[in-house]
Automatic annotation (TrEMBL):
It comes from the Bacteria. It comes from Staphylococcus chromogenes. Transmembrane segments: none annotated. This is Bifunctional metallophosphatase/5'-nucleotidase.
Length: 138
């Protein structure tokens, strides 16, 4: 979408793990794929056509953002760390959820939020964009 003269590209993803808890009859016409797999396919084109790229991912982080050590079993339910590791050069903002954690940080020049749960927190990311196409995120 456009904001003034900027093109902001967005992509929404959910965890591939839904079939592990959802009633099969509710999802029988759906296919669930790895968020990493989808981004490998779709992100290059989105990045090429966008000044700013926002990924909204209903999933969390399977590893600690600083150490990279696992924080849970590596089942594929939460691929946020893998998304950052593989695509941070192409993603300006990563909005996450699912784990209900309070996360507000910047890693590898990508702003990351996960604003808790049940509407108890509001996540805010400020993006400044200069005419020479440099993005500053706070």
């Amino acid at each position: 979408f456009k904001v003034n003269d900027l093109t902001i590209g967005t992509i929404g993803l959910t965890t591939q793990y839904i079939p592990h808890w959802e009633q099969p009859d509710y999802i029988k016409t759906l296919t669930f794929n790895s968020a990493v797999h989808i981004l490998k396919s779709e992100l290059p084109t989105l990045r090429e056509k966008s000044d700013i790229v926002v990924v909204s991912y209903h999933g969390g982080f399977e590893r600690d953002l600083d150490s990279g050590l696992p924080t849970e079993a590596l089942t594929g339910e939460n691929e946020g760390y893998d998304i950052l590791s593989q695509f941070s050069d192409s993603i300006d903002v990563l909005i996450t959820g699912h784990q209900h954690r309070d996360i507000a940080t910047i890693k590898n020049q990508t702003a990351i939020i996960q604003p808790g749960s049940k509407g108890t927190k509001v996540g805010k990311i400020v993006i400044e964009y200069t005419h020479d196409k440099k993005v500053l995120i706070k």
